Amino acid sequence: MQKPLLVAPLLAALVLLGSAVAHAEVIVAEPWVRATVPAQKATGAFMHLKSDTDARLVSAASPVAGVVEIHEMFMDKDVMKMSPIPGLELPAGQDVELKPGGYHVMLMDLKQQVKVGDEVPLTLTIENKDGSRATIELKAAARPLNAPMKMHH
């Protein structure tokens, strides 16, 4: 009796290994969302992102919100403005901070109140330089409305 060849599984493993090399390794640190009051329909999610290769955060999703967008806040003369952006660059090796008053993930059309201590599921979609995409699943802890930002030195 002849032993079966393991060519197909070996080939599949090599293809997977080869494709894994093409994807950016993105580390997510300190993800959190701001808790809401009853009937509030929007909140922000914040975190630190660090990619080992040039990549982009191109979208986000969460089951707690009907609409999730990547936003930036900026000063226009003396007025703070917020608007959606199509993606956020993640330069290789650099810490990109999503924070109140800056870049953030906006959760809108909330389906329920986000209470302090809740773990809010988020899915981030990262686009690699070659156009391929990968997702990152995470949970962000809800902090009080008046929670101070942690300072990084």
Question: What descriptors fit this protein?
Answer:
153 residues; mainly beta; ten-stranded mixed β-sheet; 1 helix; 10 strands; 10% helix; 52% strand; globular; disordered N terminus
The run of helices and strands is: HEEEEEEEEEE
What is the overall number of helices?
1
Instruction: Determine the fraction of residues in helical runs and give it as a percent range.
Output: 10-25%
* Beta strand count: 10
Question: Could you tell me the strand content as a percent range?
Answer: over 45%
What class, by secondary structure content?
mainly beta
The biggest sheet amounts to: 10 strands, mixed
How far apart lie the N and C ends? 67 Å
Please tell me about this protein's structure.
This protein is mostly beta strands. Helices cover 10% and strands 52% of the residues. The protein has one helix spanning 7-22, and strands spanning 26-34, 42-51, 55-61, 65-76, 79-84, 88-90, 95-98, 104-110, 119-128, 133-143. Strands 1, 2, 3, 4, 5, 6, 7, 8, 9 and 10 form a ten-stranded mixed sheet that branches. Strand 9 (119-128) and strand 10 (133-143) form a beta hairpin. The longest helix is centred in the first third of the chain and has 16 residues, at 7-22.
Put the structure in a nutshell.
By secondary structure, the chain is mainly beta. The chain has 1 helix and 10 strands.
